[in-house]
Amino acid sequence: MPTQILMPALSPTMEEGTLARWLKAEGDTIEAGDVIAEIETDKATMEFEAVDEGVLGKILVPGGTDGVKVNQPIGILLAEGEDESALEDAVKAAESKSGPKSEPASAPAEAEPPSSPKPEAAPAPAQEESDEDPEPTYDSFKRQSVREALRDAMAEEMRRDPDVFVMGEEVAQYEGAYKITQGLLAEFGDKRVVDTPITEMGFAGLGVGAAFAQLKPIVEFMTFNFSMQAIDQIINSAAKTLYMAGGKMGCPIVFRGPNGAAARVAAQHSQCYASWYAHVPGLKVIAPWSAADAKGLLKAAIRDPNPVVFLENEILYGQTFDVPDVEDFVLPIGKAKVERRGTDVTLVAFSRMVGHCMEAAETLAGEGISAEVINLRTLRPLDTATILRSVRKTNRVVTVEEGWPFAGIGAEIGQLCMEQAFDWLDAPVTRVAGADVPMPYAANLEKLALPQPAQVVEAARAVCYASSQG
Amino acid sequence: MVASRRDRASSKDSEPAVDAHRFEPADLEHYYRSMLLIRRFEERAGQLYGMGLIGGFCHLYIGQEAVVVGLQALAREGDSIITSYRDHGHMLATGMDPKGVMAELTGRIGGYSKGKGGSMHMFSREKRFFGGHGIVGAAVPLGTGLAFAHQYNEDGGICFCYFGDGATNQGQVYESFNMAALWKLPVVYVIENNRYGMGTSVERAAAAGDLSQRGAAYGIPGKGVNGMNVLEVIEGAAEAVDHVRGGNGPYLLDVKTYRYRGHSMSDPAKYRSKDEVSKMRSESDPIDQLKKRLLEDGVFDEAHLKDIDKQVKEIVGEAAEFAQNSPEPDPAELWTDILVDA
């Protein structure tokens, strides 16, 4: 059967073009791969190569024709042994389908544009339970620093699963720049506790490759500031591959390290990456506050089959908390914790700012304002149910974060409250955030750039329409 | 499918010119068939692109077929392979189903990634093909990580990590070289040097011309290989593969090849002359060269090769058919495969 030669699309956006000239004449023999014509697109002149072999039986669109629609038949190719009669039929068939309407019969039906997802169409936010779902209670606790809790979490998971290993700068012989990996080299050896050169993009990518091969790497960034060197691997390689692979290529990896401001280390070493990573589908993002959070959530992160960004805080490393003294303490990812119950205002925070909120809540209690403090623990997926339940009770929300306010976690929570608790709000959702400046070095300026408990107290008073005390 | 491997023990004292008689006919037929499959598949992909059935970026492998077919001849069961975005040839050479690859190009549910990845993003755990990556240079740390996993698991496998001449100017490539050499990771780094990073020639992009020496600072041995002749690729790369399998760490191959088509479908390729392209096509075509050799040496006759052509054409025809008839993904697929259920 004669083959129609169709006007080709030669760029992602081309709809029509000029058939500049034919390089073959009627009657010429054509081999697959021969350049048969030159086509002008809006950008360039392109060569058009034949895919099938045969004889050019008929030119339907002469050289020099403008506005030839993509997929319009421009010529007829005769196969070996086909004659004039076959050509006539083919020309008629081609002419009946030429013109702008022509579409290959098998072209995909125009896809309906996906209706823009309504909030409820998006991956379902955790459904609000009829009642609060408190954590199990524990009988015995041990006092531990966040540092020790993180170390124990890694050690326990490494004992449990031989595919878990930790790599990063100074994690092995130096035992961690912040001593989080203390003792791990001695217990697990240098095969599983791997000192890397200073090469963030390289070892982050190497870790992702190892995770594709079904190992379970824990990649430590000495601080998350250096993860910017590696962010392409975290987002383009780790977060997106499962989707791009139609579910075939998971990436069980944890990227962890201290995030946000430490003390007096200036702008390049003092940045919060919470909203950067929480923006990305395909990642889970955790930001623990207490030692119990650190232990239970890091163990969960290591077991999770997805890429997890685990944002620690250097100032919290030395702080001690009660950690449940049980065999295998694992906390659920995606579940916030109400750290303090209250009725007048909800303070929402993560990481170190939870401590500021607890302090503020104490002050507010002295003024007769009952504040509820929510420790988000996980930023993606966000536990919207716990936030909304609290907002519908207190009707007032203050969000607190160390990062910049613009497009921050607080902005997201404000939007959540507007979309799903609008009628319950008695005051605008208010943000307390880091100052919108690079972090200054001077002690007084640095303090001004970071949220302080007094600002949280002030914001809570404002949403409660209470007057400032003193 | 992994190509059967011939005994390389006798190649040490042989002349550099490759003699087809030292290869088994069955292997030679496999190389011919594999290269032809890639060529016909890519031509058909170009045609479907022209018909608007394939969208976006589409980087064809035409002209470079001998590179991946030659290297796969040295691969063993359990080895890993990873490359960047000019990846259709690699998938076919590892034995992935042409139907699934073509249907991914047309964005249909029958594609390897259910239509959600496209030309640059397909994967097969079964064939240990780890993509298909769109960011120039990014697959090099990933491939180094696959090699790390081979070493960690002590499974005896090695990684074939492909990237283009353009990627050799990305920093993360050298971060990877350093770690691979430091830890003696089992990885064969393969530069598919087709002379142009998009429209910029190697001469205009690389300060020193010999890309095989780009690993020298890390003590990584390197050599140049003629990538337009599949038998020379096999002979030339054998030493590298032996070195890596022997636990001696990485090896860098600068495989000199040529792409006949533009960087992607929308590239008019003004940066090189038509004479340059037609000279390569007429004098150095990898398929023509092997065909000529097979006929001249009397390994196969014309009829046998024609038969292979016909079979390959049928496979590609079926793939194109499948790729046009497979439905588009269900709208519900928009929301799947974002996370693995924990």
TrEMBL record, chain A:
Record field: compositional bias (Basic and acidic residues): 89-100
InterPro entries, sorted: 2-oxoA_DH_lipoyl-BS, Biotin_lipoyl, PDHB_mito-type, Single_hybrid_motif, THDP-binding, Transketo_C/PFOR_II, Transketolase-like_Pyr-bd, Transketolase_C
Entry cofactors: thiamine diphosphate; (R)-lipoate
Regions of compositional bias (Low complexity) in chain numbering: 101-113
Keyword Oxidoreductase: yes
Function: The pyruvate dehydrogenase complex catalyzes the overall conversion of pyruvate to acetyl-CoA and CO2.
NCBIfam families, per the entry: PRK09212.1 (NF006667), PRK11892.1 (NF008854)
Subunit organization: Heterodimer of an alpha and a beta chain.
Protein name: Pyruvate dehydrogenase E1 component subunit beta
Organism of this sequence: Rhodospira trueperi
UniProtKB/TrEMBL annotation, chain B:
Keywords per UniProt: Oxidoreductase, Pyruvate, Thiamine pyrophosphate
Molecular function per GO: pyruvate dehydrogenase (acetyl-transferring) activity
Name of the protein this chain belongs to: Pyruvate dehydrogenase E1 component subunit alpha
Domain annotation Dehydrogenase E1 component: ranges: 34-331
GO annotation (BP), single: pyruvate decarboxylation to acetyl-CoA
Pfam family, one: E1_dh
Cofactor: thiamine diphosphate
Protein purpose: The pyruvate dehydrogenase complex catalyzes the overall conversion of pyruvate to acetyl-CoA and CO(2). It contains multiple copies of three enzymatic components: pyruvate dehydrogenase (E1), dihydrolipoamide acetyltransferase (E2) and lipoamide dehydrogenase (E3).
EC class: oxidoreductase
Catalytic reaction annotation: N(6)-[(R)-lipoyl]-L-lysyl-[protein] + pyruvate + H(+) = N(6)-[(R)-S(8)-acetyldihydrolipoyl]-L-lysyl-[protein] + CO2
Subunit field text: Heterodimer of an alpha and a beta chain.
Its EC number(s): 1.2.4.1
InterPro entries: DH_E1, PDH_E1_Alpha_Subunit, Pyrv_DH_E1_asu_subgrp-y, THDP-binding
